[in-house]
Amino acid sequence: MYVDFGERDAGKAARFGQLFMPKLATVFKEGYGLAHLRADAIAGLTVAIVALPLSMAIAIAAGVSPAQGLYTGIVGGFLVSLLGGSRFQIGGPAGAFIVLVSTVVAAHGVEGLILATFLSGLILVAMGLLRLGTFIKFIPFPVTVGFTAGIAVIIFASQLKELLGLTLSAGEPGPLMEKLPMLGAAAPTITPAALALSATTIATIVALKFARPHWPGMLIAVAVAAATTAGFDLPVATIGSKFGGIPSAVPSPTLPDLSFERILAVLPAAASFALLGAIESLLSAVVADGMTGRRHRSNCELVAQGAANIGSALFGGFCVTGTIARTATNVRAGAHGPVAGMLHAVFLLLFMLLAAPLAAYIPLAALAGVLVIVSWNMIERPAIAVLVRSGWGDATVLAATFFLTIFRDLSEAIVVGFALGSVLFIHRMSEATEVQSHRPFVGEDAPDAEEGGPYDELRSSDPQIVVYRIAGAFFFGAAASIGSVLDRISDGYKALIVDFSAVPFLDSTGANVMEGLAHKAQRRGVRLFVTGASPEIRRALQLYGLVSPQVGYASSVDDALAEYDEMHPDHRARGRGATRPT
């Protein structure tokens, strides 16, 4: 047979290009007109209005300057939409990263954070090119709900100082159990003006959400708080008093310190950034798909997220990921494609260039109020209620992930939660797999129409032949119980038929159990038949030595019985065939 390797390689290259083609190119190929641009411009402006206060609030809560939050939203948001595999994804700084970012800043400084962001971008690009995006979706749902709720609690606790206007005698500790006693000791230093501003900000956002849901509640609340602070000269901390305002230009791109020692120091943090970023961005893309009926390309999206993190680091920003709230806002605002996300970044840039002096009057208490709303929205209350009611397994995974996130570490919470979820899945799958024998204690009558099919309990009435049917996945979780049943081969049997017609999957442990069964049958002179096995399962069994003539393969139990009759004419002459139902 002639194989054109050049044509085959060209086909692979073409498919690779299609899988990693940005959705922007797809949208332009479909045709892009002025009406589409108008829709994207309106959606981009709407999202930018939402992203402006959020980007600054998240940056401040993470322990960096508000300008870095804007750089992240501008550069990262533009690249996510330009290169991404989702039509509607909006990238930028996310509340889920606050805990990780603040930890890295405390341990390695802002320079270490930028380097970790740069490295996480490289990791994400590699994950996408290696097509690992599909596996990221295997994170159990209770794990995502648990760590998101845990992060929300930590974000709320981190904003108590600014919400109440507290004055601390020392630096605010990161761990929750160390933070709360210190905040409690500082309760007498509450600033009434800060408390009033934060409470008013929260009340304004909540009220506008119900009264005017299409209005930019967060931006309006922050603008009112800034105007009140400037007009009455309130004694509260502001962006100007703490950070000196924000610059009116984006800095020039600069490579971070790529020394080997620095890379080793921040590599674990970079891996955590990449893992959390992949989970958040793909989860956001799935939400957008559900709202629009479209389908994203997960590996292309990971490459775009990686490029966005690299770009953000070059301009002094930090971690970029897909953001569910802003992506949903983009969809509801009527976006047509990725141009909306790109314009959102352009509008953010214009806001920074034109309104930078006004940002100095924004009180930190108002931004803390914004983050209180964000943390409340992050807690998926209906999902938590369902998981708690669904049973002890999902509830345990949820609780373990939640408490580990709060009291230990986010990466540890995800790993432990994933491990518990996997064990729970294995347990459930093993319970769903069973072995049925051909000979019940009392046979049940059945109409003729129900006697057909790949297996019937009455098809082997000869006591010298035993038939077992495996139903469910034959994998390591069920191998022990299945093996204990199959291992009961009596010396009185002449043939053993194992029906695989209801087995969708066989792993190496299951194949090994069958290999041991074949050896035992051969030693005892028992003829082993495997029936109903799919081509993939048959190849797996043959790889482990279950080959003819030691093992016979047949498409059905009837075919195996017929083959046994042909091999033993004397057995057939005694009426073996007549005992089977017709």
Automatic annotation (TrEMBL):
<feature type="transmembrane region" description="Helical">
    <location>
        <begin position="96"/>
        <end position="126"/>
    </location>
</feature>
<dbReference type="InterPro" id="IPR002645">
    <property type="entry name" value="STAS_dom"/>
</dbReference>
<feature type="transmembrane region" description="Helical">
    <location>
        <begin position="41"/>
        <end position="62"/>
    </location>
</feature>
<feature type="transmembrane region" description="Helical">
    <location>
        <begin position="180"/>
        <end position="207"/>
    </location>
</feature>
<keyword id="KW-1133">Transmembrane helix</keyword>
<feature type="transmembrane region" description="Helical">
    <location>
        <begin position="302"/>
        <end position="325"/>
    </location>
</feature>
<feature type="transmembrane region" description="Helical">
    <location>
        <begin position="69"/>
        <end position="90"/>
    </location>
</feature>
<feature type="transmembrane region" description="Helical">
    <location>
        <begin position="386"/>
        <end position="407"/>
    </location>
</feature>
<dbReference type="Pfam" id="PF00916">
    <property type="entry name" value="Sulfate_transp"/>
</dbReference>
<feature type="transmembrane region" description="Helical">
    <location>
        <begin position="138"/>
        <end position="160"/>
    </location>
</feature>
<feature type="transmembrane region" description="Helical">
    <location>
        <begin position="219"/>
        <end position="243"/>
    </location>
</feature>
<dbReference type="GO" id="GO:0055085">
    <property type="term" value="P:transmembrane transport"/>
</dbReference>
<keyword id="KW-0812">Transmembrane</keyword>
<dbReference type="GO" id="GO:0016020">
    <property type="term" value="C:membrane"/>
</dbReference>
<feature type="transmembrane region" description="Helical">
    <location>
        <begin position="466"/>
        <end position="486"/>
    </location>
</feature>
<dbReference type="Pfam" id="PF01740">
    <property type="entry name" value="STAS"/>
</dbReference>
<dbReference type="InterPro" id="IPR001902">
    <property type="entry name" value="SLC26A/SulP_fam"/>
</dbReference>
<keyword id="KW-0472">Membrane</keyword>
<feature type="domain" description="STAS">
    <location>
        <begin position="463"/>
        <end position="564"/>
    </location>
</feature>
<dbReference type="InterPro" id="IPR036513">
    <property type="entry name" value="STAS_dom_sf"/>
</dbReference>
<feature type="transmembrane region" description="Helical">
    <location>
        <begin position="345"/>
        <end position="374"/>
    </location>
</feature>
<feature type="transmembrane region" description="Helical">
    <location>
        <begin position="263"/>
        <end position="290"/>
    </location>
</feature>
<protein>
    <submittedName>
        <fullName>Sodium-independent anion transporter</fullName>
    </submittedName>
</protein>
<dbReference type="InterPro" id="IPR011547">
    <property type="entry name" value="SLC26A/SulP_dom"/>
</dbReference>
